[in-house]
Design a protein that fits this description.
This protein has 733 residues and is α+β, with helices and mostly antiparallel strands. The chain contains 13 helices and 38 strands. The chain folds into 3 domains: 318 residues, alpha-galactosidase from lactobacil brevis (Beta-galactosidase, Chain A, domain 5, Distorted Sandwich), CATH 2.70.98.60; 214 residues, Alpha-Beta Barrel (TIM Barrel), CATH 3.20.20.70; 83 residues, Golgi alpha-mannosidase II (Immunoglobulin-like, Sandwich), CATH 2.60.40. Strands 6-7-8-9-20-16-15-12-13 form a 9-stranded antiparallel beta sheet. Strands 21-22-23-26-27-28-29-30 form an 8-stranded parallel beta barrel, surrounded by 4 helices. A 6-stranded antiparallel beta sheet has the order 31-32-33-38-35-36. Bound molecules: (2R,3S,4R,5S)-2-(hydroxymethyl)piperidine-3,4,5-triol.
Length: 733
């Protein structure tokens, strides 16, 4: 039993294999948070709560004389609003009478087998008995607002998911201005915040800052989770490293506007509140209406950041990604984008495909520019007819020749957008998000379709369903190349416009859900101008996501490093592109570009015909190497052996098989030294007793030696050299 509810005392404890989470519904019906951390067995931690005169923090109604009891100082599971807790809150609302308060009190708690689902939203799933759900119901008696806190306890995975369902059981409308998914009040600290910021072409850069008594906010108001902030945060104890110390993560299963806020309180407790962003948000709950606040995945490790990442990676692989592709080797692909951009015809594509096939590539992906009037990025989106004139053949002829070569065929689409010079826009100008009387802002000359409208989603569904049903397409790259502005839906009344961005996400999820269910065999890769929507929400539908539009290997090391804190390598789309690189102009060896791309779902994105014969031979070898490595990416553990952001000389990472029989260590030199000092790496997670052969010097060491003494690399000079060392368990010295 992973959920223990003591109905007499009100104590509720959630147990996973290595962690415990405890809360308590007191006699007033206030649900206190008591603990989240390493397993504590059957202990009752109420004795750790601290009560003293609360000073300027008010007492709840009816508790006038109890000056040591205030909602402002207690650690809580979810907060009301306007009743005396002045920290960041979970709720902001207006009741039917315009009053803004909500006093949430305990109604019931029940444990049910299996995993809860959320209406319209992606969420972790458990196909077997790996999860138990706690349903904890709170209620504000005046408005009749109930908040059901949902906890999914994945005992073996050491993850606790949380979400909230808000329902109006009263008689009048309630306007929600904020409805967070979860609040986590950690009674004791201190904690540091690790978050992942960035920009287009440099996503998910880790930054570690102390938490303080001001509010720190990670947010996106862009209508997508964004390049700038990722909906994932880690709280780490100050001395926590990769290998030791306490840390916990909060990851939203949500791809739209979000907020993760942290604050250290006057009592030195730390509050983290996560959910849909309240910026420009409101939602009217009519009597009987319901609002689902998206899921947050909480995970705790007392063995450092590496273990935290490993737990997230396993969890996302098993309980978030649903595609049958999740455990399967992904085809090595050639994408024509950086080879041709939009300047191609069928012959050019076939030439690229043939060359790629001869080198061992398994799939050709036709990127942007194959449809409508689209010779550059100023037109065409929305008119999804294959452009026979430009290509010089029919769609099926194009695909047929690629298939005859023995390659799978993949296709780029950007369903959520429309250009104004298209037939789609001419027929349905009101389908775009625009504000009456205002010229809309554009991004890449395109507007965003209002996916909050069911008829728009239905239209896109039948269009792309037909595309996939009628043509031999094995892979889809689902792109999104601008953020939302002018968020106004022509079908919502003025007072409900605050719902448009959330409804957009419901529409997107429903579209993705329908198409991925209809075509489970199709491999979907998410993309938003690179990694502008790299999150657990999208991973529910797309087992891999294009990590960044920056394909420069040296930048990619940093981007993939930051991404790996939360997301497994097998979800990161990563390609070998041309040198000099198109984004940075930097030249790197082909071998280095391949070593870096092999830390994700591997492919090529360059004109292979321009390679020398020697380079072509290298490509053949790289593909064979990747095939050997791929099982480690899909099932193994990923270790960040160096800090790719701060280490200036070299960077290294390792993949290890679950049974520790094999590992691969990659090292890339960023800054070769004159009169060099040795490059030395210590490996991790090998069986200390076992003997391992390492491919660098062909020597045999114990796992203990490789992990404690490590390996010294030969002198690596030149521009960005790299090595990949295979470690294999062996029987003899
Ligand atoms: C942005 C993507 O990230 C690129 O890889 C490419 O598909 C372009 N869009 C095409 O417009």
């Amino acid at each position: 039993m992973s959920i223990r509810i003591d109905h007499e005392t009100g104590l509720i404890t959630l147990h996973t294999l290595h962690t415990s989470y405890q809360m308590w519904a007191d006699g007033q019906g206030v649900v206190h948070h008591l603990y989240y951390g390493p397993a504590i067995g059957g202990s009752d931690l109420r004795g750790l709560e601290f009560y003293s005169d609360c000073g300027f923090s008010p007492q709840p109604a009816g508790m006038d004389r109890q000056r040591d009891y205030s909602l402002d100082t207690l650690c809580q599971e979810y907060t009301g609003s306007g009743v005396g807790d002045y920290r960041i809150g979970c709720l902001r609302l207006a009741g039917p009478d315009g009053s803004r308060a909500a006093d949430l009190r305990f109604v019931s708690a029940e444990a049910v087998p299996g995993k809860y689902t959320l209406p319209g939203l992606p969420a972790a799933c458990a196909e077997d008995d790996t999860c138990e759900t706690l349903r904890l119901k709170l209620r504000d008696a005046v408005h009749g607002l109930t908040v059901t806190l949902l906890y999914g306890v994945f005992a073996r995975a050491d993850v606790i998911t949380r979400a909230a369902l808000l329902e109006n059981e009263g008689n009048g409308p309630i306007r929600l201005d904020k409805a967070a998914s979860a609040c986590l009040d950690l009674p004791f600290g201190p904690w540091e915040l690790i978050h992942f910021h960035g920009r287009h072409c440099m996503e998910r850069q880790p930054e570690r800052v102390p938490l303080s008594h001001n509010i720190q906010t990670l947010r996106s108001a862009r209508g997508a989770s964004s390049h700038q902030h990722n909906p994932f945060a880690i709280l780490a104890a100050p001395h926590t490293t990769e290998e030791a110390g306490e840390c916990l993560g909060a990851m939203l299963v949500w791809s739209g506007n979000f907020k993760i806020e942290c604050e250290v309180s006057q009592m030195q407790s730390t509050r983290l509140v996560a959910g849909v962003s309240d910026d420009d948000f409101s939602w009217t709950l009519e009597p009987g209406g319901q609002f689902a606040a998206p899921e947050v995945l909480f995970c705790y490790s007392d063995q450092g950041l590496s273990e935290l990442s490993a737990r997230y990676h396993r969890f996302l692989q098993r309980h978030i990604i649903r595609s049958p592709w999740r455990d399967k080797p992904r085809p090595v692909l050639i994408n024509n984008w950086e080879a041709t951009y939009m300047d191609f015809d069928a012959q050019r594509i076939w030439d690229i495909a043939r060359q790629a096939r001869d080198l061992g590539v398994e799939m050709l992906v036709l990127d942007d520019g194959w449809f409508g009037e689209r010779s550059d990025d100023s037109s065409g989106l929305g008119d999804w007819q294959f452009n026979e004139k430009k290509l010089g053949c029919t769609f099926d002829q194009l695909i047929g020749r690629v298939r005859e070569m023995g390659l799978l065929f993949g296709l780029w689409i950007e369903p959520e957008m429309v250009c104004t010079n298209t037939a789609l826009y001419a027929a349905h100008p009101d389908w775009a998000l625009t504000i009456p009387g205002r010229a809309p802002a554009t991004g890449r000359s395109q507007l965003v379709l209002d996916l909050g409208r069911p008829e728009v989603v239905d239209y896109l569904y039948s269009l792309f369903h037909r595309l996939l049903a009628e043509h031999d397409i094995a892979y889809i790259k689902w792109d999104m190349n601008r953020n939302l502005t002018d968020v106004y839906s022509r079908v919502l009344p003025p007072e409900r416009q605050g719902e448009a961005a959330y409804r957009y996400m419901l529409g997107l999820y429903s579209l993705l859900d329908r198409l991925t269910r209809d075509f489970p065999q199709v491999l979907f890769e998410g993309c938003a101008g690179g990694g502008g929507r790299f999150d657990a929400g999208m991973l529910c539908y797309c087992p891999q996501i294009w990590c960044s539009d920056d394909t420069d290997a040296i930048h990619r090391i940093k981007i993939q490093y930051g991404t790996s804190f939360g997301y497994p390598p097998c979800t990161m789309g990563s390609h070998v592109s041309a040198s000099p690189n198109h984004q940075t102009g930097r030249s790197t060896p082909l071998s280095t570009r391949a070593v870096v791309a092999m830390a994700g779902t591997f492919g090529y994105e360059l004109d292979l015909q321009k390679l020398t014969d020697a380079e072509k031979e290298m490509v053949k070898v790289q593909i064979a190497q990747y095939k050997q490595l791929q099982p480690l990416l899909l099932e193994g553990r990923c270790e960040r052996l160096t800090d790719a952001v701060t280490d200036t000389c070299f960077t290294a990472w390792q993949f290890t098989a679950p049974d520790r029989s094999r590992a691969a260590v990659s090292v890339v030199v960023i800054d070769p030294q004159a009169n060099p000092w040795p490059i030395h790496v210590r490996l991790r997670g090998l069986d200390p007793q076992a003997l391992y052969h390492e491919s660098l010097t062909e020597r045999v060491y114990t796992g203990a030696a490789l992990c404690h003494a490590g390996l010294t690399l030969p002198i690596l000079q030149g521009d960005f050299p790299a090595v990949q060392i295979m470690i294999e368990r062996t029987e003899s010295l």
